[in-house]
Design a protein that fits this description.
Elements: H1 7-18, H2 21-32, E1 37-40, E2 50-55, E3 58-63, E4 65-70, H3 80-96, E5 99-104, H4 107-114, E6 126-130, E7 134-139, H5 145-149, E8 154-158, H6 165-174, E9 180-183, H7 190-199, E10 205-207, H8 209-216, H9 221-244, H10 251-269, E11 279-284, H11 285-288, E12 306-312, E13 314-315, E14 318-319, E15 322-328, H12 333-352, H13 359-372, E16 415-418, E17 421-424, E18 432-435, E19 438-442, E20 447-449, H14 457-460, E21 461-462
Parallel strand pairs: 5-9, 7-8, 9-10, 15-21
Antiparallel strand pairs: 1-4, 2-3, 4-8, 5-6, 6-7, 11-12, 12-15, 13-14, 16-19, 17-18, 19-20
Length: 464
């Protein structure tokens, strides 16, 4: 018979006091009879095997690590060949650089290499890669979901029952290998780095975030097909904004309508996808439009308002966006002049996106146009960024941004936006923010514009 030790012994008086012992015992016995679950507990040599709590004669193992196979595998986002190709590219890099094990901890790289997008809620997640094994490391709170997404990899689950069980899993997956190990320095805190060093003692630890980012910025044909599909969904969101915008309608009402329409389209085009993170901003008036990422408010739309729509459908962790300036009913003269200038720069920027051009050269040439109109200092941010597995809280590929300090040369199959923005402060003629945004696939001869929604005064002065 198992003995109660540690927290198990401490819990028993509590259960007795609450009168829960019998009901807990019955619940555990019922759990074992549920045939739909395949719940197995692995035992590991790294430290204590498990913590057991004996309750009224029934024993339940409180493991450090376990494996849960529940339900059926979910249809993957990409083909097996696509995912195998990604891993092959990663392992080529590992072999060339003498790296025998990798721990990914970012949303984007775990999603990129495993098709699993985790939800942290304060818990760590990982993807351990060696030359012969790939394993997602997930929290017990997610139960069987990570395993259902694990088509080309294994899955190990860590529990909350003991401190730092996540790092036990890391040690299990990476400690047996020898030589250098790598992690993403940009998502590894000092505290976690110290724990990582304990999990893989006496090993050189190197950064892999930047070199792997350089691998991700060129998209595969399957990625491009998905991004095109998502871009078309953002066009649906733009049409919904135009349909819903009217005098007196609050920003959040218009925003919610657009999100619902995009989700309907995601359900139609990608019925097996997970619904999370799709969002929109609808900013109205000269104050709310001054920041590209300003939150949606209860402000009610007025005739003559400058507005910016922002649509961001997300499918399997992949992102597309549509952003447009719009006005309700009419455009004041100075607003119209500034809007036309920003559209001029937007069109010119689209022409400049082609293979062989440096990102910084595009930014510098567009700066000259703004300077001609004495508007250079009204610019708000860079002229564009990458598209792929990213959202507002993960995945930004800093090497593919249209900024003065980025020297990356554009290549075919890179996916990048063009999105100039200017802001006129409150009290000046034309006050407010102006922004357009299209998505482009770099080709051998130029680029393919995959955004279909129109822009400019001839299309988006909306009369109701």
């Amino acid at each position: 018979m198992a003995t109660c030790t540690g927290s198990g012994m401490m819990l028993l008086p509590l259960f007795k006091a609450l009168g829960r012992v019998n009901s807990l015992h019955v619940g555990l016995r019922k759990f074992r009879r549920i045939g739909a679950y395949c719940f197995t507990t692995r035992q590991y040599s790294n430290g204590p095997q498990k913590l057991e709590s004996s309750v009224n004669g029934s024993t339940t193992a409180m493991a450090h690590l376990t494996k849960i196979e529940n339900g059926q595998k979910i249809e993957p986002t990409f083909s097996k060949q696509e995912m195998d190709n990604r891993l092959a590219t990663l392992r080529d890099y590992m072999q060339t650089n003498g790296v025998e094990g990798v721990l990914f901890t970012s949303y984007h790289n775990i999603n990129y290499y495993s098709d699993f997008l985790y939800l942290s809620m304060g818990r760590p997640y990982g993807l351990a890669v060696t030359m012969d094994k790939v394993t997602t490391i997930s929290a017990l709170v997610d139960w069987g979901h990570p395993w259902r997404r694990a088509h080309i990899c294994d899955n190990v689950v860590y529990t909350d029952w003991h401190k730092d069980n996540f790092w036990r899993a890391v040690a299990q997956e990476l400690a047996p290998s020898r030589g250098k190990v790598a992690c993403e320095f940009d998502t590894m805190s000092i505290d976690n780095m110290n724990k990582f060093k304990l999990a893989v003692p006496d090993r050189d630890i190197v950064d892999i975030a930047e070199p792997i980012m350089m691998k991700r910025i060129k998209k595969s044909d399957e990625e491009i097909a998905l991004i095109k599909s998502i871009a078309a969904i953002s066009d649906v969101g733009g049409a919904a904004i135009v349909e819903a915008m009217d005098e007196g309608v609050p920003e959040y009402v218009v925003r919610d309508y657009a999100i619902d329409k995009m989700n309907d389209e995601i359900a139609r085009k990608h019925p097996n996808s997970e619904f999370r993170d799709t969002w929109a901003w609808w900013q109205t008036g000269p104050v709310n439009t001054d920041g590209a990422h300003n939150p949606v408010t209860t402000r009610r739309l007025q005739k003559g308002d400058i507005c910016i729509m922002n649509l961001f459908p997300i499918v399997s962790g992949y992102y597309a966006a549509l952003e447009r300036t719009a006005f309700l009913d009419h455009v004041p003269d100075e607003h119209l002049r500034l809007w036309n200038i920003n559209c001029e720069i937007h069109r010119k920027g689209i022409q400049l996106i082609k293979a062989g051009v440096k990102c910084q050269d595009i930014a510098l040439e567009l700066n000259e146009i703004f300077a001609k109109y004495n508007l250079l200092e009204t610019r708000s941010f860079g002229y564009g960024h990458s598209i792929g597995t990213l959202t507002h809280y993960y995945g930004r590929e800093a090497a593919l941004e249209l900024r003065e300090d980025v020297e990356t040369v554009l290549e075919p199959n890179m996916c990048i936006t063009m999105e100039p923005m200017i802001v006129m402060p409150i009290g000046q003629p034309g006050e407010g923010g102006y922004r357009e945004h299209n998505i482009h696939i770099v080709t051998e001869t130029g680029n393919e514009d995959i955004t279909g929604f129109p822009f400019g005064p001839e299309h988006l002065v909306v009369k109701k």
